[in-house]
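User: Teach me something about this protein's shape.
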Amino acid sequence: MSSIRAQQKEKTRRLLIDAAFAQLSAERSFSNLSLREVTKAAGLSPNAFYRHFSDMNELGLILIDEAGLMLKKLRSQARLRIKKGGSVVKISVLTFMEFIEQYAHIFRLLLQERSGVFRAALSREIDSFTKALCGYLQQANKLNAEVAYLQANATIIIVFSAAAEALDVDQKRRHDLTKRTILQLQMIDKGSLEMNSSR
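Assistant: First, the predicted structure itself:
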């Protein structure tokens, strides 16, 4: 395959992926999208779809892989900002909320697709995110494995819940949610340190 042809193929594939992401909303999950809707939004024919994906399930799994890559990018961004100094909790929450604002479509996918062929893939991505946070807490706060996991798990639940609320609210409400989330995580952080020292 020539370089130009390969580039064109990748461009078409990207159009389909971006079109699928763009269709996601509070009222519309990926499971409710049809192949024709995706190809129409991408400005392509249904036949073009089949040159890249066998069906909508395969496209959905690709979207979840992309969501996982974005979560890894998010972790890296937060860690770089933390190294420059400041509250770990505050920086982490602010970074996550900025991610939600910029990539709402990706977060909607993580929230909405919890059944069928997507369940295992989504669980894998969220579990990977939790384990990475757990490892960081063990190292940064000198927590034992059990306490670090409990804190990581609680953190993910609270942050994902707050982010779900933040998707479709105005700036003031999002600001209030961010402040509340930071306070909740600071409480958990303090409790984890106390629990760890008592063991």
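Now, about its shape. The radius of gyration is 19 Å. Residues 1-53 form a domain with the Arc Repressor Mutant, subunit A fold (CATH 1.10.10.60). If you'd like, I can walk through any region in more detail.
User: That's plenty for now, thanks!
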